[in-house]
Structures are given as structure tokens and as C-alpha cells.
Specification:
heterotrimer; A alpha+beta (223); B mainly alpha (173); C mainly beta (916); B: 173 residues; mainly alpha; 6 helices; 2 strands; rod-shaped; C: 916 residues; mainly beta; six-stranded antiparallel β-sheet; 8 helices
């Protein structure tokens, strides 16, 4: 009974304390803040890059802005898992997954959508560096002389042309002529028997033989 | 006398027309360069029949021309490959156009033919060219140029028409 | 020579074979090149972007810094600085679109302070010149229930927060603006007399309380340490027994309020003082501005007779200040409201005032003291609800040509004589155009005509506030505007009932919406090219409309009839005489919150059109499922399918299941085992048959889906793996056709279910809008355009979303060109069609076909408007931009010259040789 009363009194006491203080602390109510620092690329160091750069948490569910000392804080975030992206129209920053558990512990790791349980830790408070410039455009094809010269069609037409012009000059050389003659002689050795001869003999075999013997007799007679 | 003997020894080609023996031989001496042995094997046909046979032989050459081209065409087809690019297309074009042209000019090639084997030769020529064309078509088929599958006629099919029409969406209330 | 070739041959063959086998590889890499992006010199040639801020909530002139600007905070949760002279946005910060981004206070002194959020609140301080955030601190209130009635203002470097709790007290908290420390505990001022009709006039809170007849006006300064209530009976100030209070607009420099819409009462020296200023109209917007020395009352209103009125009076004397008087006849500022004023004395000691006016149609104008408008911004375009692309009419000459070919009757001689006639007309036109020296005068008055490629169209935009715009798509200029204050645009639908292709009839567009107050149907019909009302004009119906559609058949004037299904399931046909044309028409109505779909068949029974209930489906499973429909997508009615099947690698055809009556429903609901379930169902709207369905567990649906010929794609958020995924489905008949080619497809006669190919991919970004490109003949590929929360619009080829992507491709699949499966979709920066012009909060993308087959027109709407052209298969029907005409003509001329000269020289050489 006594402890029950004590508990009730304690409860009332705590409530009164809370009621008198309208501002709640940021931490302790389930509302956390994600902090970090953005490092712009060197070209943008001078200028208004803080206005063009935004920090999106979970695709725009919470938006943070960059202060002039290039840090950012995104407040009033309940516990959970969030993807923090720094967006700039020209430069790419890598997104980071920040997990805040119910006790208020932060863990920042690289974003991997395929292997969602892979943990490659990244220092927290976040340090976002510009990775590379976005390449939005194609380069126009330039016409280069090498493209024209090494085109296979061109080579196929130009090379025979050169050969035609060079070969006659080579032919005029007497040594080359003899070499060619030898080659053609060699090539002739493996000649197949003439098919036309075969066919001729096949179809008109009888007639030609008779004709030839009669001719021979005639010749002999004349002698 | 000695000069006569000398003359017979010195000049190989000199002929001695003095006849010591008054033997009348019925046979004349053979003309210079003539040898008895080659009589049998020498067959000389008369102008008419000899030229006829030559012509026929020549015409057979022409008739068998296309068939001789077949191995070379096979080789060209093999070298050209199955992709669609300028070189294979040129080769296939050449393979088709040559036999077709040859078929059309059959008449002019066999213009001078009178012999008995004309029909046979023409037929063989024709067959040879047809074989070449078939080879070229086979090449086209393996390259995928012939519209043999239904996918080739897909683009010419009429579009589907619909009978019923719909409208609507989420209730506007 | 022969020896060489013997050695080279095998290597050459081997090379050929190798190249053949890696053919697919080359094709793949050339595809990955993804050269859909444009060249750098094409920026701005066929795209434009317009940035908006939204309806202005708070505005203040910032005259401290060098560049004169106006700082605005809007209803769209945007903080922006507008250039005073031109009205262009100098810098802009977009807060969250949810209530956490609502801006509660804007205060401009030497620095800019905003309070945003809705418990917890964030107080931020900005640099007005550049917009850079200086610091911020957070503020949370204990009392949640009345938080929305809280008021904020800055006084003497302190941020004051006042929370009225009606019927009991006022809670006032004051914070140090710089540091956020609480000055003390919250003070509670007992005030039983406060109610909802109170008006705040900083720092006094004024109320009327008491019973009718003996009412009292009470006012209290909430910031002072001593609680002093000014109490006066109402009858002292006004004659009537009832009192209505209204606070002033703008940032009044003297605390004051309006009593009974007639009198202006200021609070001075703890006294009420009725001024001698009379209000011109009961709805006038009044503010007290600093007229360089003496305060003055500026009021503005607009009425139906004269239009816009602007008047100013001196507070002390009540006299009219003549310099501030609207002399121009402006009629198109409905219900103006003064957002801010700034008055200075010019060099000649004249009063120069700049007045910022917001109208009921969300437009923002800056006026000079005589009513001249310096600039105006149409902020209604920050909330576009519906878009339609309308073709322009053809020119008279082209119309004549088309009409010549239209007439099918007549003999050959008639056609010949017609042809001669049109050619004579064309000759006349040509001679006239040559005779005219420059003809520039003609172009100003010539009406808009279609260009050759039909790329020039008119975009009709319907905005949330009820304003309809007609915009030129090439320049983004507004051609006409129409404001209908009674139009409630929730679920508004637009139909093009007649295109401009049928001269002499003009184009006809109908907008079906709801009346603001009664929720009955409201139909607006207009000519989209000129913006004039035609036909039914503005028609108020006396019944609520459940669903509407247009008839596919046209009457003899080429007009599609409008069919309306009202709440009691009666059908109305506009125009009435088109009722006999209703045939083969089916309607489906889906209910969002119960996930029920009802199908109707519309038939004409000789007298009128009746709607018969034919089928109904419970998409959630049973009637207690608590599912709700997230998105409904039907195919575009003018869509054509070009090829009936897909050609596979072995040259056979995989026939597609093309059902023009399919509708995709994406629903979401709770599940006892898995937390949330997303179900995608594909229903034939004529027969009610479910063609395909897919369920995803532990997922939340996003309202993004795409449905074109036989393929569907929809986006959902996978809660288990915490990533966004796209699921795609494709429907196929198989290797054999079901119907003969060219046969009519009837949903009621089909008995077989199609085969479904499914796949899901991970999208490594958060999408906010999705659409598919659209072309006239559907020859080009279809690409899906996704708008991401990063502000980029990415063009994703269907090749990557295809469900048939194999894990290990076989040679036939490689031949077909299928990309191997990868779980994550690539989002390269070359695929971003709006390059580095980021767009904030895109909520829809609309596409339309153009006259060119390769090009599709794209409009993205949201907080910004962006228009561009997309060529999914690159511009295959156009010569490329940098086609080098010069090089080709030079080379051609050189070759001709070379050939003739070599011919000449060769003949000469032959001649010489022959003479030797």
C-alpha cells in the first residue's frame, strides 16, 4: 500500500515537472537529429553552393538545409532507418543509410539495396564528399582523318588500286617474269584430266574413232 | 670421184640423184623427215569431221563451265560468313547475278551450235546454272534473308480491331 | 602469293567466327551506351522550365539589402525571394510537403526568420540576400490539441507564441529570437471571453463576447507585463447589436480590426478609436501602411461592375489620398487580397507605393499606386491537376488539300478539275507571298496553325484552384486563361471531344468537375485553341456525377458524345441527339475506399440510354477487407499496337495478348500475418474477367503505374528490405495466334487466360511520378519516364524493365537482344532528361504523341513545370542536327570534277598512244 502511494506520488511529481517546462529536449521524446558536414568540390568553394545543395532524408520526408559553415542538421526524426542523400544539380554525392535505434544510438552505413544487411560503416556525424560531376550530355562525333583512312571499305578499294599500279612495274623486271613462269609450270602439274575430253569421248566416242580410222586409211592410200 | 665421195660425207642433207642401180623400185623413197613407224598411230581426220569434233569439245567446255564453278562458289560462300554486312551481301549478289545472266544469254553462247549434242549440252548448261542459283539461295537461307518464318510476315499483318469500348475510373463522388 | 594466303586464311576465318560469337556482346555494349541523352549545344532548344512558388501566405518587402526583393512564404511550404522589379525567383527553399513543412511565420528585419512545422516547430534564421541558413533551433509544445490555433509574431527581438484556449485562457510564451531561450515560463492570461471569432491585431487580441443585445468588445495586449483589458460595450462603436470582427491583411503597422465589415477601428493608447474611413466593399482587403510620415489605410476589392478597385485614406483625417487610386480597367483579379505594401517618397516628393496583391485564382501581382501592374505571376500553375495536349488546326491551304482528298465520290473529271482548282489557289498564294516585301505584319494576326511535324501543340492545364490555362508548348507562354471559381477540381476529367483535324469544325474540349458547394456535376466546354466557351459552355448539373466517358463513335459533325453516369445510375448524353449512337459501350466505376469495382453496360433501348450492372469485383477479397485502391490505369484510348508479337531468336513469334479493355488496379490493405499487402489486379472492364494478378507482402503501394499495350509496371515500397521496387508484368498468348490476323477482338467472346511473365526490380531512388512515352504509330520503343525525389526525370528503357530478362542468356535470347537479369535498375546520369535543371516536387508526368514517329512530347508538373521532347529510339526519321551539308556537297563536287577530268586526260593519253 505504501509503495503504491509512493509510486503515485512519484508519477504526479514527474508530471508536474514536465508540465512546467513547455520546451522538451530534443532527445528523450523519440525525436532525434541527423547531423553531418558537406564537403563541396573545389570549383564550388567560392559562391552560393549552400543554397543549391539540399539534404533529403527518405526521399524528401525530412529536408535539411546547409548552414554557412557547411554543416547540416535534420531535426525531429523518430527512430528508424533512413537514407540520407545530399543533392546538388551538378555533383553527385553518395547516399548513406542512418539507423537510429529506440535508445538513441546512431549507426551510419553505406547504402546497399541488394544486400540490405551488409554493414560497411561510415563515420557519424556524416561526412559527405562530392564524388564526381554528373555527365548529362553526349559528345558530338568529330570527323577525324583516321576514321576515313582505316575504314575497311576504303582499304578494300585503295589497296587493289595500289596493287594494280605497282604490279605492272614489277612485271617489267625480267627476273620476276622467270619466277612467275616457274610457278605456273609447277601449278600445271597437278592438272585433272579434262572433263570435256571425257564427255566428248563418252558421247561421240564411236563417231570420232570411226572418223579417225577412215582418215588414216585415206592417208595411207595417198602414200 | 673423191669429190663425190666427199660430198656425200660432208653434206648430211645433200641428196644424191645419180642412180647406180638401174633397179626400178616400185616404191618411192620416203620424203625427208618421214618415219614409217609413226604411220599407225597418226590419225589425221579430214577438215570437216575434225573441226566438228573440236567444236563439240569446245561447246562441252562451255556447258560444263557452271558446274566447274560450283566448288569455287562453295568456297566463296564459306568464306563470306553468315553475318549481314557489305562483303557477304556483295558475294551473294554476285553468286545470284552471274548464273541468272548466264541463263539469259544461253541463246547467244550456243549460237554456233549445229551438232547433234546441242540439246544435251544446253541441258547440262542449264542444270549447272540452276545448281549455282540453288547454292546462292541456300546461302541466303542460312543468312536468314529468305522470308520462310512467320516472323517475317509479322509486319504485314492487319492490326487488331476492337468491338467493345470502355470508359471509367475511380468514382467521382 | 599463294603461300601467304594459305597462312592467312585460317586466322581470318577464326577472326570472323569470333566476331560472330561476340555479336550479342557488341549489341549489348552499344545499347548500354544509352545515347538517349542530348548534346550540350541542344540545351534549351526544345525544352523549357518554369518555376513557381505557390499561393502566397506571407510576404514582406526586403528593402534593407542592396538587391530589392520580396520574401514570400507560400501555402506550398516554399520560402522564396522574388526580384522586386521582375518578379523572378532569386532563390527558393522548398520545405517538406507534409505538415512538418508548413510555414507559420515569416519575419523580415535585418535577417529573415521563419517558423515552420506543426509541433514540433523549427525556428530558422536565413540570410535574405543569398538564402543561406544561418542557424536553427527546435521548439516543441506540450499542448497538442489547440496547436493549430496558435499565432506567432516577433516583437522587440522576441518570438511570441500565443495559444488561445477558447473559453478559458491564453497561453503566451516568449523566446529569445537569437538563442531560443525561454524568457520565463509560459504566462497564462485568464480570458474566459475568447472564442473562435476573435481577431488578432498584433499585439492585441480582440474579441466580441456576450449575449446578443449586450455584447462587449474586449481586447488585451498579450505581450505586456501588466494585463490590461480594454472593455467596451458594442453599442458604443456600432449601431447594430451584432458584431463580426475581421483582422487586417498584409503587415499592418498599427493594431486595428474591421468591425461588421464597415468600420475600421484602431487601438491606440489602450482605447478603441473608430476611424473615419469607410470600407468600399464588404469583402475588401484592408491594410494600414506607412505612407512616409503618416499611416494610411489601403483597401482593395473587385466587383462585377467596375472590376478592380484600389483606394487609400489617411487615418488621421479620413481623407482620400488621390495618388493611390486605380485608374486602369483591370477585370481579371478576382477577390484581391493585399499581401504587402511598401511606400516611399520619390525624388519629386511624390508618393510611390508598391502593393503586392494575391487574387483568389492564386495569381500574384505587384502594382504601382495608380493600379498599373508591374509584373504578375500565375501561381495556380504550381498545382496542376489535369493536362491535355491539343493539336492545332491546319492552315487554310492544307485544309483545302485535305478536303480535296476526303471527297470520295465524283468521277475522274471532277477530281481532275478539283486538283486544277487547288493548284491555281496555291499558285495565287505563292505569288502573293512573293509580292509581299517582308510580311511581318501578317504573322502577328495570323492564327496558330499546325507546323509540318505537328510538334506545335496547345497544352490545356486545369489547376487546383479552378483556373484553366491554354499554353503554347514550344515557348511556355500562356495563350488564354479562364477562371471558374465554382469548380472543384478533385477528380476532374478532361476529354478532347473533337480534334482540330476536321475543318470547318473547331476543336472541342470538355472538362467535367464538381461544383464547389453542392458537389453536383459541373461541365465546361471550350475551344482549346482560343479559350472561348462553346457548346454546353458552363453547365451546372443538378445531380452528382459518378463517372463519365466519351463515346468512341462520332456523329456527323465528328464530335464524340459525352456520357455521364450519375449517382442514381442514370445516364445523360451530351448532345442528346447522339443517344442512338451508343452501342458496345461499357463503363466501370471503382470505389477508392472499399476497393470495389462495378461494371456497367450502356445500351440504347430506343428511347434513352440505360446503364445495366453487369459485373462487380471486390479487389480486396471480401467485403470486409479494408483494402483501398491506390491507382487505376487503363490504356490510352488512342493507342495503337504496331506489331502483334515479339520475334524470338529462333525466328518464331511470341504473340502478345493485346486486350484493349484491360484495366490495372493497384490496391493496398492490411494483412493479419504480413503487415501490409499490395495487390495488382488486371481486370477486363467489359466482362469482369481477371486476366492477371500479383500480390506483394509487407509492402506499401505508391500511386505510380504504367499500362501500355501488353505490359504493365507498378511501383511499391518493400517494407521488409526498405527499398522501392518496380514490378512488371507482360501478357502473352503463346506461339500460336488465338484469333486470325485482322479479326475483331471481343472481350465477351474470349475464353482463354493469357500467359503472364512477371519480374520485379529494385529502384535505387524514390520515385514520385511515372509515365510511358507515347507515339502515334507505336513503332518506337516505349520508355518509362520516372520522376525522382532528387528532382531528376529519368528515362528508363523498357528493355531494362522487361520481365523476360534471363539470368543466364541462351544464344537465342542473346540474338533477340534480351539484357541479362540484374536485380537493380541502372540510373545513369545520361538518362536524365532535364540535365541539371532540377525540378522540385514533381507529381505527374504527361506524354503526348507528336507528328514525328520518333518523338514524344513530355510535360512534367508539380511545383515546377518542365516540357521537353524525348526520342526513345533516337530520331530515326530526321536528319541529325549536325548533318554536314557542306562537306558532302564539297566532296560530291570534287568527285564529279575528278571523274570528268580523268576521263578527259585518259582519252588524251589513249590518243597519244595510238599515234605512236
Amino acid at each position: 500500500m505504501k509503495c503504491y502511494i509512493a509510486l503515485v506520488l512519484l508519477n504526479v511529481f514527474i508530471n508536474v515537472l514536465c508540465a512546467s517546462n513547455p520546451i522538451e529536449e530534443d532527445i528523450g521524446n523519440g525525436r532525434y537529429a541527423i547531423e553531418g558536414r558537406v564537403f563541396p568540390p573545389e570549383e564550388l568553394e567560392v559562391g552560393n553552393w549552400q543554397v543549391e545543395t539540399r539534404v533529403h532524408v527518405n526521399g524528401g520526408e525530412y529536408i535539411g538545409f546547409i548552414r554557412d559553415d557547411s554543416t547540416f542538421v535534420v531535426r525531429n526524426i523518430p527512430s528508424g532507418s533512413y537514407v540520407v542523400e545530399v543533392l546538388h544539380p551538378d555533383y553527385m554525392y553518395e547516399p548513406v543509410r542512418v539507423e537510429i535505434n529506440s535508445k538513441g544510438k546512431y549507426r551510419a552505413r553505406k547504402v546497399n539495396y541488394i544486400q540490405t544487411s551488409q554493414v560497411i560503416q561510415v563515420p557519424y556525424p556524416l561526412r559527405m564528399k562530392a564524388l564526381s560531376k554528373f555527365r548529362y550530355f553526349q559528345v558530338r562525333e568529330q570527323w577525324r582523318l583516321t576514321d576515313f583512312l582505316f575504314n575497311p571499305m576504303v582499304i578494300m578499294m585503295v589497296l587493289p588500286l595500289l596493287l594494280i599500279m605497282i604490279l605492272p612495274k614489277m612485271m617489267n623486271d625480267p627476273e620476276a617474269k622467270e619466277d612467275l613462269k616457274q610457278i605456273s609450270n609447277l601449278a600445271k602439274m597437278g592438272e585433272m584430266p579434262e572433263m570435256s575430253e571425257m564427255f566428248t569421248s563418252l558421247f561421240s566416242g564411236g563417231a570420232s574413232a570411226k572418223a579417225s580410222t577412215s582418215k588414216a586409211k585415206q592417208v595411207k592410200k595417198r602414200q | 670421184m673423191s669429190s663425190q665421195v666427199k660430198s656425200s660425207k660432208k653434206f648430211k642433207w645433200a641428196l644424191d640423184f645419180n642412180q647406180k642401180n638401174k633397179v626400178i623400185s616400185t616404191e618411192l623413197p620416203s620424203p625427208p623427215g618421214y618415219s614409217q613407224s609413226s604411220n599407225a598411230s597418226y590419225t589425221e581426220s579430214s577438215k570437216d569431221t575434225d573441226s566438228n569434233l573440236l567444236l563439240i569439245k569446245k561447246l562441252w567446255d562451255v556447258a560444263l563451265g557452271p558446274l566447274k564453278q560450283v566448288p569455287m562458289n562453295l568456297f566463296i560462300m564459306y568464306m563470306a560468313g553468315n553475318s549481314i554486312s557489305i562483303f557477304p551481301i556483295m558475294m551473294v549478289g554476285m553468286l545470284i547475278v552471274r548464273p541468272v545472266k548466264a541463263l539469259f544469254s544461253t541463246q547467244s553462247t550456243f549460237k554456233m551450235v549445229e551438232g547433234t549434242q546441242a540439246a544435251g549440252q544446253k541441258f547440262v548448261y542449264f542444270i549447272g546454272n540452276v545448281v549455282n542459283i540453288l547454292l546462292a539461295l541456300y546461302k541466303c537461307q542460312s543468312m536468314g534473308l529468305l522470308p520462310t518464318h512467320s516472323s517475317d510476315w509479322l509486319a504485314f499483318e492487319e492490326p487488331q480491331t476492337r468491338v467493345e469500348h470502355i470508359g471509367g475510373g475511380i468514382s467521382l463522388i | 602469293m599463294g603461300m601467304l594466303s594459305i597462312y592467312l586464311k585460317p586466322n581470318f576465318l577464326g577472326l570472323l567466327k569470333f566476331l560472330n560469337s561476340v555479336n550479342w556482346c557488341i549489341v549489348l555494349f552499344s545499347l548500354i551506351n544509352l545515347s538517349e541523352c542530348i548534346y550540350e549545344d541542344q540545351i534549351g532548344k526544345f525544352d523549357w522550365r518554369q518555376t513557381y512558388v505557390g499561393r502566397v501566405k506571407f510576404a514582406q518587402f526586403d528593402t534593407v539589402s542592396t538587391a530589392k526583393k520580396i520574401i514570400v512564404a507560400t501555402e506550398e511550404n516554399v520560402l522564396a525571394a522574388l526580384n522586386l522589379k521582375t518578379g523572378q525567383v532569386m532563390w527558393r527553399h522548398v520545405f517538406e510537403s507534409a505538415s512538418t513543412g508548413n510555414i507559420q511565420l515569416l519575419h523580415v528585419s535585418e535577417k529573415l526568420v521563419t517558423v515552420s512545422g506543426s509541433n514540433p516547430y523549427l525556428v530558422r534564421r536565413w540570410e535574405p540576400a543569398t538564402g543561406v541558413l544561418l542557424w536553427e533551433w527546435s521548439l516543441t509544445l506540450q499542448n497538442e490539441e489547440y496547436a493549430e490555433f496558435s499565432e506567432w509574431w516577433v516583437q522587440n527581438g522576441l518570438l511570441v507564441h500565443m495559444l488561445p484556449i477558447f473559453g478559458s485562457h491564453i497561453e503566451v510564451s516568449m523566446y529569445n529570437l537569437m538563442t531560443g531561450q525561454n524568457r520565463g515560463s509560459t504566462s497564462k492570461l485568464p480570458a474566459i471571453w475568447i472564442n473562435e471569432g476573435c481577431a488578432l491585431s498584433v499585439p492585441y487580441y480582440t474579441c466580441i463576447s456576450g449575449e446578443a443585445g449586450s455584447q462587449q468588445i474586449l481586447s488585451v495586449d498579450v505581450t505586456s507585463n501588466s494585463v490590461q483589458i480594454i472593455n467596451k460595450p458594442l453599442s458604443d462603436l456600432v449601431q447594430t447589436h451584432e458584431g463580426i470582427l475581421r483582422s487586417l491583411d498584409g503587415n499592418s503597422i498599427i493594431p486595428a480590426f474591421i468591425l461588421n465589415e464597415k468600420k475600421l477601428v484602431i487601438i491606440k493608447n489602450n482605447q478603441f478609436e473608430v476611424t473615419k474611413v469607410a470600407l468600399g466593399d464588404t469583402l475588401a482587403s484592408v491594410t494600414i501602411a506607412d505612407g512616409t510620415g503618416e499611416p494610411m489605410v489601403i483597401q482593395t476589392w473587385s466587383d462585377s461592375s467596375k472590376g478592380f478597385h484600389l483606394k487609400a485614406h489617411s487615418i488621421a483625417t479620413g481623407n482620400d489620398i488621390p495618388e493611390i487610386h486605380c485608374t486602369e480597367n483591370i477585370v481579371n483579379i478576382p477577390d484581391p487580397e493585399i499581401s504587402g505594401t511598401m511606400c516611399t517618397k520619390s525624388a519629386k516628393d511624390q508618393l510611390v507605393c508598391r502593393i503586392l496583391v494575391t487574387a483568389a485564382d492564386d495569381s500574384l501581382q505587384l502594382m504601382q499606386q495608380e493600379g498599373k501592374i508591374l509584373w504578375s505571376r500565375e501561381e495556380a500553375l504550381a498545382n496542376v491537376v489535369a493536362v491535355e495536349f491539343v493539336d492545332l488546326p491546319v492552315s487554310d491551304l492544307d485544309a483545302a488539300i485535305e478536303s480535296e482528298f476526303d471527297q470520295k465520290e465524283g468521277s475522274i473529271w471532277a477530281a481532275f478539275s478539283r486538283r486544277l482548282h487547288t493548284q491555281y489557289q496555291q499558285l495565287q498564294a505563292l505569288i502573293q507571298s512573293l509580292q509581299r516585301p517582308e510580311g511581318t505584319k501578317e504573322e502577328d494576326t495570323s492564327p496558330l496553325v499546325r507546323d509540318y511535324f505537328n510538334l506545335h501543340k496547345i497544352i490545356v492545364l486545369v489547376t487546383d484552384v479552378g483556373k484553366i490555362f491554354g499554353m503554347d508548348n514550344l515557348s511556355g507562354a500562356i495563350l488564354w486563361k479562364l477562371y471558374e471559381p465554382n469548380l472543384d477540381t478533385e477528380g476532374v476529367v478532361m476529354f478532347t471531344r473533337r480534334s482540330a483535324r476536321h475543318p470547318p469544325h473547331d476543336a472541342y474540349l470538355t472538362i467535367v468537375g464538381k461544383h464547389e458547394e453542392t458537389s453536383n456535376g459541373l461541365i465546361i466546354s471550350l475551344n482549346p485553341v482560343r479559350g472561348t466557351l462553346v457548346g454546353e459552355r458552363i453547365l451546372h448539373l443538378d445531380v452528382q456525377v459518378m463517372q463519365c466517358t466519351i463515346l468512341h463513335q462520332t456523329d456527323n459533325e465528328k464530335l464524340h458524345a459525352l456520357l455521364l453516369l450519375d449517382k442514381y445510375e442514370n445516364v445523360q448524353v451530351f448532345p442528346q441527339f447522339s443517344a442512338p449512337l451508343v452501342e458496345n459501350m461499357f463503363l466501370y466505376v471503382a470505389e477508392k475506399n472499399t476497393a470495389k469495382v462495378q461494371g456497367y453496360a450502356l445500351t440504347y433501348d430506343g428511347k434513352e440510354v440505360i446503364a445495366q450492372k453487369t459485373w462487380s469485383i471486390n479487389l480486396g477479397g471480401d467485403s470486409n477487407s479494408r483494402h483501398r485502391i491506390v491507382k487505376v490505369v487503363a490504356k490510352s484510348p488512342s493507342e495503337r499496337v504496331h506489331s502483334h508479337g515479339k520475334v524470338l531468336g529462333d525466328r518464331s513469334v511470341l504473340y502478345k495478348y493485346i486486350n484493349p479493355n484491360l484495366v490495372l488496379f493497384v490496391t493496398e490493405g492490411p494483412d493479419p500475418i504480413h503487415k501490409d499487402v499490395v495487390v495488382a489486379t488486371c481486370v477486363d472492364a467489359v466482362s469482369g474477367v481477371v486476366a492477371a494478378a500479383q500480390a506483394h507482402r509487407r509492402a506499401r503501394a505508391l500511386p505510380l503505374a504504367v499500362h501500355t499495350d501488353n505490359s504493365l509496371a507498378y511501383v511499391y515500397y518493400n517494407d521488409k528490405h526498405r527499398r522501392t521496387e518496380i514490378a512488371t508484368m507482360e501478357l502473352y498468348e503463346g506461339k500460336q495466334r488465338w484469333l486470325a490476323a485482322g479479326a475483331a477482338f471481343s472481350s465477351l467472346a474470349s475464353e482463354r487466360a493469357p500467359g503472364v511473365e512477371r519480374q520485379a526490380y529494385i529502384l535505387p531512388a524514390a520515385p514520385t511520378a511515372a509515365a510511358s512515352t507515347d507515339t502515334e504509330r507505336s513503332l518506337t520503343d516505349k520508355h518509362v519516364l520516372l520522376a525522382l525525389s532528387t528532382g531528376a526525370i529519368v528515362e528508363m528503357p523498357w528493355l531494362y524493365l522487361e520481365p523476360r530478362r534471363p539470368v543466364t542468356p541462351s544464344p537465342e535470347q542473346r540474338e533477340e537482344g534480351l539484357v541479362p537479369y540484374a536485380p537493380e535498375l541502372p540510373l545513369p546520369s545520361e538518362a536524365v532528361i532535364n540535365y541539371n535543371r532540377t525540378l522540385h516536387r514533381i507529381n505527374s508526368i504527361y506524354t503526348a504523341p507528336s507528328g514525328l514517329e520518333s518523338t514524344s512530347l513530355v510535360l512534367a508538373t508539380g511545383l515546377d513545370l518542365f516540357y521537353t521532347r524525348v526520342a526513345p529510339s533516337k530520331t530515326f526519321d530526321l536528319l541529325k542536327d549536325d548533318f554536314d551539308y557542306y562537306l558532302i556537297t564539297v566532296v560530291l563536287a570534287a568527285l564529279i570534277l575528278a571523274s570528268y577530268s580523268t576521263k578527259y586526260f585518259a582519252s588524251r593519253k589513249m590518243l597519244k598512244l595510238a599515234w605512236k
